[in-house]
Amino acid sequence: MKLSHEQRTALLARIMDSHKYRDSGLNPETVLDLIDQLAPKQTSKKGLYKDVRRKLHNIVAPYLGEPDYAALSQRLDALEDTAMDSPQLRAFCIEVLGDHASTAERVPLLNDFYKKLFSATGTPSSILDLACGLHPLGLPWMRLPQTTQYHAYDIRQPRIDFLNHFFLTLGMKPLAENRDILVEPPGNTADLGLFFKEAHRFEKRQPGCNRDFWTSLKVETLAISLPTEDLSGTHSLLDQHRELVEENLSGAPIREEIQIENEVIFLIDHPGRA
After folding, report:
1. How far apart are CA 264 and CA 250, in angstroms?
2. Which of 65, 25, 13, 28 is nearest to 156 (CA)?
3. Which of 25, 55, 76, 152 is deepest in the core (most CB within 10 A)?
4. Residue 101: which of 76, 135, 72, 69 has the closest Cα?
């Protein structure tokens, strides 16, 4: 079905004002993108509404049940020592990271994870953390210079506000931004792009989208991480996810694979120069 501007706007408003998303701070561009994708496949407004809600849930579900970010900011302010190597700060970060599924698995590995990553990429002076989630709270273990330009992108405003508060607390520039990177890829140049545990979810949202997205990035090296096992830990996903990455490359080969426990990182040099 073809929607008028008024119908498209009304559907966006209806979804954004629903109980689940009313206070979520969700980026409306994500919803509009789904409406535009799914409208041609539907013949009724009711069916379109259901389809958009279903697909949106798949994208946003990992973000629901989130912590009270304002309360976390207050706790951060109450810390007596917020230096990068402060035990207080690290304990706070571990607690927050441990409460989120995608980062909890990495908590026991924080010391080795970034050591192995940056030994392969070199120490970056600028980073794009793409669909970042709470990953920037790993900064105390990254051992990066305080002058590092750390751009972080996510689709929920409360999370972005908290991350910018965190950056400022560390003495860094507040470079977190509410942006749907699939709809509007960042135009910043950077030494390193981090795309952690999201490529397979992007494929479910829009099959084949990773190729154009990766090509659009102006980074020297793109680090794509994916899980090597399913959630039950009984089936290997390594070959499947290696194939996903290879199928979405546009001439730039995988330079290196780094496997750290149940996560594999694929390094791609100059993905936008193929």
Report:
1. 20
2. 25
3. 152
4. 135
Cβ-contact 239, 137 below 8 angstroms: no
pLDDT band (50, 70, 90) for residue 251 = confident
Distance in angstroms (rounded) separating the CA atoms of residues 132 and 70: 19
User: Which residues 6+ apart lie within 8 Å of 43 measured at CB?
Assistant: 1
> How much helix, strand and coil, in percent to the nearest 5, is found in the chain?
50, 20, 35
Higher pLDDT, 210 or 230: 210
Write out the H or E segment, with its range, that includes residue 91. Answer: helix 87-98
CA distance 164 to 172: 9
Which helix (H) or strand (E) is 20 found in, with range? none
What is the distance between the alpha carbons of residues 129 and 193, in angstroms, rounded to a whole number? 6
* Cβ-based neighbour number of residue 248 at 10 Å: 21
Distance CA 122, CA 167 (A): 22
Q: Tell me, what amino acid is at 128?
A: L
